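Budget justification, computational time. The allocation requested in the original proposal was used primarily to generate structure tokens for proteins on the priority list. As evidence of use, we reproduce two of the resulting records. The first is shown immediately below.
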Amino acid sequence: MTAVSHTLRRRRWALAGTATALALVVAGCTSNTPEDEGTAQAPAVAATGNDEPGDKVTIGFSAPAADHGWMGAITKAAVAEAAKYPDLELVQAEATNDVNLQISQIEQFINDGVDAIVLLPFDGAALTEVATKAMQAGIAVVNVDREFSDPNAARTTVLGDNYGMGVSAGTFICEQLGGKTDAKVAEIAGIDSLPLTQDRSRGFKDALAACGLTVSNRVAADFTVQGGEAAAANLLQAAPKLDAIWNHDDDQGVGVLAAIENAGRDEFFMVGGAGSKNVMDAIKADNTVLKATVIYPSTQAADGIKLARLLVQGKSMSDLVEVEVPRTIQLYAPVVTKENVDQYLPTAFES
């Protein structure tokens, strides 16, 4: 990358917050009236070659500690994706759940003059200020999974769909129960104080309501095997008859399945959440109550790496007509069953 282009791109990110605000004003004044048929013109040349080597890119990457299978997969996938590009240097900070340490890591990236930062913050609100500082320094920030409190602290944000997970799980259960309006449906949530858990539960409740069902029994765990087993044991004791269970998290689902086996219960079917390999293997084998899981992609940081590279090199997403990388990308929450499990196994994470 030449000194001139490097300076221009840094100036571009430093002005990103102002540009975003202006774009919102312009969008509000733009007519939504469609053009007459035949007047719109397709671009002359489709965007291609995004994976071809380009200008050298240095990306700083920081994420929480891998104390959970999904989080471990996040970092592993990001590192593997970065290794595919000879024009990309990844500077990986030590994974940490210490907010102050993560802030100092981002400050170090700023001091080192990296081109972009891909950041999965331990606490989005707490990392907002330092991410804003990076943007003001002309460094493209890609926010992953846990949102900053100010969207202008990032050029692009990559998210899973927590509400959509609940909707997908609830819709699948409705379909499987086939209009049985007196069915007993249970829910084993994650940590109730987290917005992500609240979003998942809200989506689940809304989807069930659409087919005349409600959550008859609900307990919360803590995303751990031990917590899942304890919560499930309490649930099963309180509910002598169930038709379906949705467990929010496949890591804690290892404990949930252990509790179900210990209780000798099999009158219901179970849906998992997140998309672990062991759960997908069980779905494929079809020899437990576990019949499906809902994906919360562990590819988010890997997607962030690809997007950061495109941003720095001034490229767009080749499958879009738009000439800029989008501001927000929310990944889908599909249901994985025995019929389609082979499609999703390659990106499943180890619990």
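The second record produced under the same allocation is shown here.
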Amino acid sequence: MRTAAVIGTGLIGTSAALALSQRGVTVHLKDHDPDAARTAAALGAGTTDEPQGPVDLAIIAVPPAYVAATLAEAQRAGAARGYLDVASVKGGPRRDLEALGCDLSQYIGTHPMAGRERSGPLAATADLFEGRPWVLTPTPATDTEVLNLALELVALCRAVPVVMDADAHDRAVALVSHTPQLLSSMVAARLEHADDSAVRLCGQGIRDVTRIAASEPAMWIDILSANPGPVADILAEVATDLGETVEALRSLQSADEAKRRDGTAGIERVLRRGNAGRERVPGKHGAAPAVYEAVVVLIGDQPGELARVFADAGAAGVNIEDVRMEHSTGQQAGLLQLMVEPKAVPVLTAALRERGWSIRQ
């Protein structure tokens, strides 16, 4: 691949353009908002100049509802040898393309499983896709050359290709992406009018659950409008669980001992089902989740503190498998959880204490 066109210079389009430009591909940028394209170009993502003839690959990076019309226009203009989109749903845009009579041999639907709470070209980074799954949804009509161009794009962005059926993809992202977004927003909405005294008690649990609630509503309206059925199906199942959980909690308030036992059993069921589901979430490097233990370090909010604790862990010969940070409300300190293999806990604990760190049990 020597040349590419990115149509839509938001977070995903600009990030892909940055990655391609850094690897020697000439990228031509286009957006319905010229300022967005110029901003992406100023960041080094490519040029706003029109290409002199067809490019190797056109990347359609617009909301799902606009994919078909945008791609059809590009095909009519003979803009590229191959075309792909990066929208977060796949079945709807493909059916729209069929209805418009587009040449599907030149097209493949894709979806990089990467993103941020912020949107727009200024949020883009060349390494956004590194190590992330990038779903490809070829059809029997997809030309081998187009599939190879898509695989080359994934490789240049240092992502991991995953081949799926388009409708299976949409059901999957409804479960692992779209429904969690709505649930996060619903939990965060409970905080909007909560007493200040309650909000001040926010700890890491509520921060984890509500992190993605900071996402841009307009972007999510576009996404959810393109995949409403599968999301509604999963939310209906969640609603059933919520109803049963509410009933179980009410039973715990009963004076009847049998009802209280039923309530306890109901709560235990949902918690254990949650344990079982969480265990299926892939762990480090996509492997089965490993069991790690936390070494909790009190750390000050000062420049260089994180670097120092990581350096001390490295000097002790301990590999940090994961990191979590819990900030202390109203204090210039936090609790840093260093996740390590169980056998490394005494080694790391002793080494950090020797270097003056305060370890919390």
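A brief technical remark on that second record: Residues 237-281 form one domain.
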